[in-house]
Structures are given as structure tokens and as C-alpha cells.
Amino acid sequence: MFSEGGYKLELKEDGTYHHSYTAAHGNVIEKTGTWELHSFGREILFKDFSFLTSSTTPADWNSKLRVEGNKIDLMYDWKDDIYYRRVIKNN
User: Fold this and answer.
1) What is the C-alpha separation between 59 and 47, in angstroms, rounded?
2) How far is Cα 32 from Cα 74, in angstroms, rounded to an integer?
3) Which one, of 70, 68, 76, 78, lies nearest residue 51 by Cα?
4) Which of 83, 63, 64, 79 is nearest to 5 (CA)?
5) What sign has the CA pseudo-torsion 39, 17, 7, 3?
6) What is the pLDDT of residue 56?
7) Which pLDDT belongs to residue 32?
8) Which residues contact 76 (CB under 8 A, 6 or more apart)?
9) Which residues contact 56 (CB under 8 A, 6 or more apart)?
10) Distances from the Cα of 15 to the Cα of 22, 33, 43, angstroms
11) Of residues 66 and 91, which shows the higher confidence score?
12) 57 and 48 Cβ atoms separated by less than 8 Å
């Protein structure tokens, strides 16, 4: 699972993802879709992705992975250096 602020993005082994945003007042916005790993370019392609709090139409989104030691981040906005941070989910 990756997270940033109130956003969470869970990549599941079956090739699906669950993306959610929890607002300060507790309302939750959610979206699901599929993803593909392009390991040669350290990219993940998200199909029909929505940024949830923006007014853009859902579309395919390519995101780069940043790997530094044991930290794995998923690029959200390279201009402002915003990344989702990988979080280990305990079951």
C-alpha cells in the first residue's frame, strides 16, 4: 500500500488497485481499477485512474517508482516532489 496525506493507494496481486481519499471531516472518496508493472522502466500503468479530488476525467496514468535502499515511492507530482510512500500492511 502507498499513502500520502489522506490518500491511500493499494495495489493488489490480482492486478487491481483501490484508491481512496479521506477528508478531514471523515468523508471517503474511492475508485478502483487495474494496474500493470513495466519493470524495465520502473513504471506502473494505472488504467482508468482518478486523482479523486480533482475535476479531471479518469484516464490512464503512468507513474514512476523511486527506489532508494528499502524505501519505495510512487511518483504523484515530480514538479513539487510529491510521492506516495510505500507502507507495509500488517494483516
Assistant:
1) 7
2) 17
3) 76
4) 83
5) negative
6) 75
7) 92
8) 4, 63, 82, 83, 84
9) 50
10) 23, 9, 14
11) 66
12) no
